[in-house]
């Protein structure tokens, strides 16, 4: 048991995956996701953030479809994605529950979700 390797996001993203990054921001995770061979769609409400993310992805040779949209109106069909990523976004939206329902709507049955929100201790460390 002690030698068991901890899994990382790399263990869950393959070439045949369809990944949606909701609230992609400046594209940190996209630089990694876009080079795994998965089909990646990035969504953000900010044109400026998408521009920065597009440049970051291009610098890594990745391919991503970018969509300008809020988390409450994800313009993708039902049951679209095999993986949904939403990092440090839900604390910024007016109705997190509705945003989550949209993410669930676009995820296929059995889809995996990576959702993160700030932790008070981590925020204090970063702020310091």
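Q: What amino acid sequence fits the structure above?
A:
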């Amino acid at each position: 048991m002690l030698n068991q390797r901890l899994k990382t996001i790399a263990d869950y993203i393959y070439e045949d995956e369809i990944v949606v990054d909701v609230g992609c921001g400046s594209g940190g995770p996209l630089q990694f996701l876009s080079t795994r061979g998965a089909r990646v769609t990035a969504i953000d409400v900010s044109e400026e953030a998408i521009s920065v993310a597009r440049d970051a992805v291009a610098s890594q040779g990745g391919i991503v479809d970018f969509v300008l949209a809020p988390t409450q109106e994800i313009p993708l069909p039902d049951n679209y994605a095999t993986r949904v990523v939403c990092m440090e976004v839900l604390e910024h939206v007016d109705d997190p529950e509705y945003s989550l329902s949209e993410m669930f709507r676009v995820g296929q049955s059995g889809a995996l979700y990576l959702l993160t929100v700030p932790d008070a201790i981590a925020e204090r460390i970063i702020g310091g």
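Q: And what stands out in the fold?
A: The mean pLDDT is 86.
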